[in-house]
Amino acid sequence: MTEEIVFAGFGGQGVLSLGQIIAYSGMLEGKEVCWMPSYGPEMRGGTANCIVSVSDEPISSPILATFDTAIVLNRPSFEKFEPKVKKNGTLIYDSTTIKVKSEREDIEVIGIDAFDHALKLKNSKVMGMILLGAYLKKKPIVKTESVKEALKHVLPERHHKLIPLNLQALELGASLI
Fold first, then answer.
1. 3-class SS at 124?
2. Residue range of the domain that includes 6
């Protein structure tokens, strides 16, 4: 099993952290992983994405042109990465803020109103965790227990008080599939 994923959005939306969570979870489970971030000099507000590979076998290269799954949090990322999802792949996006539709019929397209649900949880920053929960329900490449443990290592200690909220968002995302 090899899963190649791109997480993409604006800087500050947590896309790099989402990738780290998946990569760290895979490491905890003894899988081969690769995490490669990419962001503009602006950081917050600029575009950011990260490529994550999780595999049972050694990973040959961290550089990918196409992906099994794209998880996108803004329209520019939708427009950039929707064409790069492999045939029979999956595109998961926030349908609250991204109002375009994919014309592709060779991939599974899942729109989730993650931003609206994040506002109901009183923290817009958990939008990515909602999408991650939906993704892991659809493609359980790592266990939820591993994600819970990874959060402790990926989030800075000053944000550990937010782990219960992040787990709630993860579960909410899974329930939306």
1. helix
2. 2-175
CATH of the domain at 23: 3.40.920.10
Q: How many domains is the chain partitioned into structurally?
A: 1
User: Which residue, 47, 32, 37, 46, is CA-closest to 16?
Assistant: 37
What is the C-alpha end-to-end distance of the chain, expressed in Å? Answer: 22
- Residue 132 tokens, joined: 């991650």
What is the rounded distance in angstroms from the CA atom of residue 77 to the CA atom of residue 55?
25
Digit-coded pLDDT (tens) for 146-170:
999 999 999 999 999 999 999 999 9
Give the start-end residues of each E strand in 13-165: 32-39, 47-55, 67-72, 85-94, 108-112
Beta-sheet pairing, 85-94 with 47-55: unpaired
Convert the pLDDT of each residue in 121-130 to its tens digit: 999 999 999 9
Distance CA(106)–CA(118), nearest Å, equals 30
> Could you give the percent of the chain with pLDDT greater than 70?
97
**Number of CB atoms found within 10 A of residue 113's CB:** 15
Query: Residue holding tokens 């592709």?
Result: 104
- Beta-carbon contacts of 2 under 8 Å, excluding residues fewer than 6 positions away, are 53, 54, 55, 56, 57, 59, 68
